[in-house]
Amino acid sequence: MAESLKNKTVRGVTWSLIDNIANSGITFLVGLILARLLTPAEYGVMAMIAIFIAISTSIIDSGFSNALIRKNEVKKIDYDTVFYFNLVVSGILYIFLYLLSPAISSFFKEPVLIEVTRVISWILIINALGIIPRTIFIINVDFKAQTKASLISSLVSGIVGISMALFGLGVWSLVGQQLSRQLLNTFFLWFYCRWRPAWEFSIESFKEMFGFGSKLLVSGLMDTIYKNIYYIVIGRFYDPDQLGQYTRAEQFKLIFSSNLTAVVQRVSYPVLSSIQSEPVRLREAYRRVIKLTMIVTFACMLGLAAIAKPLIILLIGEKWLPAVPFLQIICFSGMLYPLHAINLNILQVKGRSDLYLKLEIIKKIIAVITIFIGIFWGIECMLWGGVFVSFISFFLNSYYSADLIDYSTKNQISDIFPFLIISLIVSFCIWLISFTEWSYIIILIIQIIVGIGLYWFISEKLPIQEYQEVRQLVFSLFKKK
């Protein structure tokens, strides 16, 4: 059983990593090309509608996918019930956003938002159609099909977006890219999934899953609003150009932080759920997930902050230089996102969606204060407030999850602290190189070489078991290829 669980986890992590790395790589490269073809203001326009799409997406799912994943025995009628709920809600929300589009345009003082909102909102219905096939793959810890679907959709949609930008379609090239990507992804999820809906709906099944999922829905809505509230504040009180600069900085951070978080969350949740009735085994599996995740996360996020300036200038040009300090600040908050996800997964695994909701309320109350500070004191102050909230959130999340699996906040800090110190030392050293007067390409190359070499040297000299495991995993993947 243990070996089977280990193999399932490794296979899930491997395919999930391939999915996120390859998919993000394609998206990142497409983004670099589009960033050179489009203006920061055009990116800012798309960011203004982002929070409405994100909130609607959370409502459509309503925590039902997590409720399905957590169930020990899922019946076909459960899938059918959730599918029709998702579809009906997505249609209602599309109509709502269609009618609300003039008000959104007026709020941000951007006339083009009326038509942009009405077109991009089709993504809600398209996404709703793919929720159940995606959930089935997650339950089975089968990320191979998802990887194929996302890679094809990312590649083709990238070509669509770049082609539209070359024809001078501006913000509509971003709309076309997002719509085509989601449409293709949903199509291939259905193509690879054998499940098909029947004409049935169970009130009992709905009530059972809604009891668990409703609290996750409220929690998810608060988290979604918080993650996207910066778009509203910056878009309303500053200008589209500054919002575009923040958006690009956020997208650079997402390459590492959100992708690592997504991998950890969608693999660890079903795997840990499968051993929820074995306390000792659950705690040890949880501890290893945290240590292996954070050794990579700290290195990537702090390293990204150190090389931010030459990286941005070389990849997308001087016009995006204001994004550099934004990226450096949000890397410090983003480095803890995977840790948040793991701690919150335990609450879901243990069925404590009530604690999950309570935590989100406390954290968001604290976060609102930092957002209001940003309105009066500037964007950078608001982002530093986000760093503060991220650290406070870790202590709150770990405090509640500790009681459930007997793994205290102190023990978590003790396990990850050596990784943080090593990453801080290495990142500080390569950050100093950015102050030299060499060309940016020389600076970036030296930073990368020095960073990898210094990290390897320090880690080889210290008895860090997790580093050895990561190194062996990387070597084994290269050998297989």
With helices defined by DSSP (H or I, 4 residues minimum), what is the helix count?
Answer: 20
Strand content: under 5%
What distance separates the N and C termini?
28 Å
Main sheet: strands, sense, barrel: none
Helix-strand sequence: HHHHHHHHHHHHHHHHHHHH
Shape: globular
Radius of gyration: 22 Å
**Average predicted confidence as pLDDT:** 80
* Fraction of helical residues: over 70%
The class by helix and strand makeup works out as mainly alpha
Report the strand count.
0
List low-confidence stretches: none
What is the topological layout?
Blueprint: H1 2-37, H2 40-61, H3 64-70, H4 76-108, H5 113-120, H6 122-139, H7 144-166, H8 171-192, H9 203-237, H10 240-254, H11 257-273, H12 279-306, H13 308-316, H14 323-334, H15 337-349, H16 353-377, H17 379-405, H18 409-433, H19 440-461, H20 465-480
Helix pairs in contact: 1-7, 1-11, 2-4, 2-5, 2-6, 2-9, 2-10, 3-6, 3-9, 4-5, 4-6, 4-9, 6-8, 7-8, 9-16, 10-14, 11-12, 11-15, 12-14, 12-15, 12-18, 12-20, 13-19, 14-17, 15-17, 16-17, 18-19
What is the structure about, briefly put?
The protein is mainly α and 481 residues long.
Structure description:
The protein has 481 residues and is mainly alpha-helical. Helix content is 86%, strand content 0%. The longest helix has 36 residues, at 2-37. The two termini are 28 Å apart. The mean pLDDT is 80.
